[in-house]
Amino acid sequence: MNYIIPANTTNVLTVYGDVPSTATSSATVKITLNSSNTTAQSYTTFVSATTSQVDAYTLTVLASSTNLTAATNYGFGSPTVTAGSPQAEIASFNLTAGQVNNVNLSGITLNINGNSTIAGWLQNVTVKVAGAQFGSPQGTISSGSSYTFTPTSPVAVNANQTVEVDVYADISNSATATSSNAINLTAVNASTASGNAVTISTADGQLVTFSTGGTVTAALDGTTAQAQYVGMGVTSLPLAAFRFNTSATGGATLTQVTFKDATSSATSTANTAKSDFINYRLMDGTTQLATAVEDSSSNLTFNVSQAIPVSNYAVLAVVADANNYPYATSTDTHAIQLTGFTYQNPSGSSPVTLAYSSTSTGNTISIYRTTLGVAQGSSFTAPVSISAGGGSTVAQFNFTAGSGYDAYVKTVSLSGSGNLIQTSSTLTLGIYGSNNPSVLLATSSATSTNSMTFTISPSTGWDVAPGQTYTLIVKLNGTTPLTNPATVNSGTGSFQVNLSGVTWNDGVNNVSQLSPNITTPINGQVITGLSN
Q: For the chain, does the N or the C end have fewer beta carbons within 10 angstroms?
């Protein structure tokens, strides 16, 4: 071999060779440039040139199997599949190209579990490589058989690159509860860019748990409506909420839910007042699932199709509209009780019947012609003097009637607290309505920390108009609002008038409840500025 190296330049001598298929795996190859076998001379002076020995890197011959390795994808875990599930993932593998050659993947061979029962549960086996379908699905399979999946064009796996191979199948409805390996990856049709065939060692698939499907249980949910009373004509009232839970063995689909409209949460007695509530619907959040009409036995039946995933739940609420007067009856009570449900899983349809239980019964809902809410009123300037003649405001409470009808306040109970006024002093208070603040509704006296009841005149009561908020104004009343003795504790401390009870009339019946779920006492404003 003769060639010229120009002055002041460096030439690279590259040596190529073919590695025969019979080469020994792990054998080493090293090319050496020997000084004794290298001769050179100057192109112009013809002086001989010499060189020292130079060793190239040592190369190791790799077996063809190292061009591509197959392994179980442990990141996938051990799947649980449910009978009747379409295209459930049943195995996952990793294919990794070696450090030298790119590989063209033209086929994958899978071997099916030798158990004929397991194999019989699998149909339409599908392979995906790097998320894309690889070849055509295998519709029917036999136990112990191998099937090769071939794509329309090879998939390139670059050197040191890993691609994921995922296997899916339809699970038969006849699958029963068991665990077993389903599929192994046993071979590939692959080659390097130079056309050399590539082989792999078998990679085992994951342990697959077959499930017959989930079961469903139900109970009252924590978001259910509290015991309260509601006004007639109010729409979209939540009456009760229930939680339906699926087991860890699989999901299920609710197909029917039944309830009873009972007289209270403490009994399963059917309610005969069927016109109090109308337009019943079953809701999943803001989504309406179904409607129902109360039948002659006070039952509500909702036909639904509510899928609940494995180990999950759905909260379903019964919602209705309160009917208008006189179709609804004041003082009626209702409680929604879950009496049964039906769910579907791959094993079939499962009806569940529930006996009366407090864990499956909503709270008691009472209905009146209207509602009355009470809250502390707005703040005001505390009086600085309690001189004869009274007239100073010492408390304010807001009364709000429901939107449908008037509320008539009949009596109000107030009590004092604090140390600003001596407990031996007799306190006289008067109450007024903000809709007509010059008219005294009632007056009452008691020692400063005792309760006093105001009976409002006229006997029909103080009329709070529908949907309106009026303020009940409490004032020191009379020429001597504080007597026996009229003593303030040196202007120090505090005093507070609290509302401890109300009776009112909804136009049909007298009522003592407040809306909704309001408890007494309701504290008035704190006064610290009284002086004698």
A: N
